[in-house]
Amino acid sequence: MQFEEKEFAQKLRDYAELIAVHGLNVQPNQLVHLSGEVAHRELLLLLSEQCYRRGASLVQTEILDSRFSRQRIDLSGDEYLQFLPDYIPAKYNYFVEHEVASAKIVGPEYPLIMKGANPKKTNTVRKAAYESRKRFYEEGIDKSRVHWTVVAASTEGWGARIYPERSPKDAMKALWEDLFTFCRIGNGDHLEQWKRHDDELQNRARHLSSLGIEELHFQSEGTDLRVGLSSRAKFQGGRSRSTRGVLFEPNLPTEECFTTPNWRACYGKVRATRPFYVNGELIQDLQMTLQDGEITSFSASQGEDVFREYIQSDEGANRLGEVALVSVSSPIFQSGRVYEEILLDENAACHIAIGSAYRFCVNLPEDSTDDQFQELGCNSSSVHTDIMISDETTRVSARCSNGEEISIIRDGDWDFE
User: Fold this and answer.
1) Taking CA 239 as the corner, what is the angle to CA 233 and CA 244, rounded to the nearest 5 degrees?
2) Each residue's pLDDT tens digit, 27-41
3) Is residue 386 a contact partner of residue 353, using CB atoms and an 8 Å limit?
4) 111, 279, 320, 334: least buried by Cβ within 10 Å?
5) What fold characterizes domain 2-182?
6) What is the pLDDT of residues 298-335, one digit of tens each?
7) 222: Cβ–Cβ under 8 A, 6 or more apart, which residues?
């Protein structure tokens, strides 16, 4: 037992180092912002230490508890739901202006805390929060002025959802081991192993971008979906480069190559292959039909009303903002588990996202206007939610600008290399 505890402690330290080095790539004299739940404090402490060791000027840690969010939805007067004090947008504007490194730790201690919450009130709070951080998303994230990363930490509450047959503590440990495996920790030089994996993603994304893909065609049981791309679309995989010229990893782990679709050129029917959360409510067995780029009908065995409210929350919420390719060779898919956390589940399957698009996946000058992006079908919205749509039966083909049709994925696995 003592050996196991020492081994776990070393893996957790290696994980924190991976986040600081490859995730954030903290630079000397850089301000660092970390956020996570109370249950994430051990990882937060180790990550803070690693950031200081890399020369951070200050590591600011924000401790969250989802129970406070539920209290506001249930108890606050409707007239206060949009209220946010001025210091909140000021803080996020400061992050952009000073090019901070920002890590968000996900992994709920209370996975079902938002179950049954009023969807209208939840959307009101969410949209107000988005507006207060809009510059952070548009400049910090989309234009990579900020080194940002999203990572996961195991908790007893989350672990019990994934490993219900085990005790809460054993379930948490099992989930930690999954996270370590997905991030290539525990089997040699974790930093070098992650770099090799990242290089593979980069090479695959460059190859996809070179094909001149005009349309992706997804086919499997319940899915016959065509996703059009603009002539300026490019694929992204693995690390990004900030405006200061520093490489960082937006997601740890990651297995996807993704791009921004032309939302107007998306049509067909699609079936979600994994459940996913919207505003804390689980959406199960979703099926959708898209016409002229918009969701025209849908059904779900669970969460249908919540999903309806969500896609009606603004004009772009029922359009596509992302399409991503993921092989069944992904260790997350190979685990055979659904993790009920989008950071993991989106890296187990091909997916589409409704809502806002990533402008860094469109080849336009940095000073391009909103109208120029919109002309290319780059969607704008206050929401962004990934919906997994592939499994081991999925076929994906690409129609290219030279008229050629190429098989990209066959039986869920890469077929173009």
Assistant:
1) 95
2) 999 999 999 999 999
3) yes
4) 334
5) Thermophilic metalloprotease-like (3.40.1830)
6) 999 999 999 999 999 999 999 999 999 999 999 999 99
7) 269, 270, 271, 287
Percent of the chain with pLDDT over 90: 95
The per-residue pLDDT for range 137-184, each reduced to its tens digit, is: 999 999 999 999 999 999 999 999 999 999 999 999 999 999 999 999
Question: Which has the closest alpha carbon to 399: 254, 247, 215, 246?
Answer: 215
Give the pair of three-digit tokens for residue 333.
């898919």
CA distance linking residue 72 with residue 189, whole number of Å? 45
CA distance 155 to 111: 10
The dihedral through the CA atoms of 225, 229, 234, 236 has a sign that is: negative
The two structure tokens encoding residue 277: 């959360």
- The answer to whether 258 and 236 are in contact (CB under 8 A) is yes
Is the CA virtual torsion 207, 208, 211, 212 positive or negative?
A: negative
Those residues whose C-beta lies under 8 Å from the C-beta of residue 193, and which sit 6 or more positions away, are: 184, 187
User: What element of type H or E holds 205?
Assistant: helix 190-210
d(CA 64, CA 38): 6
Q: What angle do CA 76, 79, 82 make, to 5 degrees?
A: 85
Angle at 33 between CA 32 and CA 37, to 5 degrees: 140
Contact 136, 96 (CB under 8 A): yes
Q: Which residues pair with 37 in a beta bridge?
A: 64
How many whole angstroms separate alpha carbon 10 and alpha carbon 3?
11
Instruction: Report whether 295 contacts 316 (CB < 8 A).
Output: no
296/314 Cα distance (integer angstroms): 15
How far is residue 38 from each of residues 42, 192, 277, measured CA to CA in Å?
9, 31, 21
Question: What residue has token string 């996270």?
Answer: 179
Q: By percentage, how much of the chain surpasses pLDDT 70?
A: 99
pLDDT for res 188: 82
How far apart (Å, rounded) are the C-alpha atoms in residues 400 and 285?
A: 32
What is the rounded distance in angstroms from the CA atom of residue 109 to the CA atom of residue 401?
Answer: 48
**What is the token pair recorded at 148?**
């940002």
Domain residue spans of the chain: 2-182, 205-414
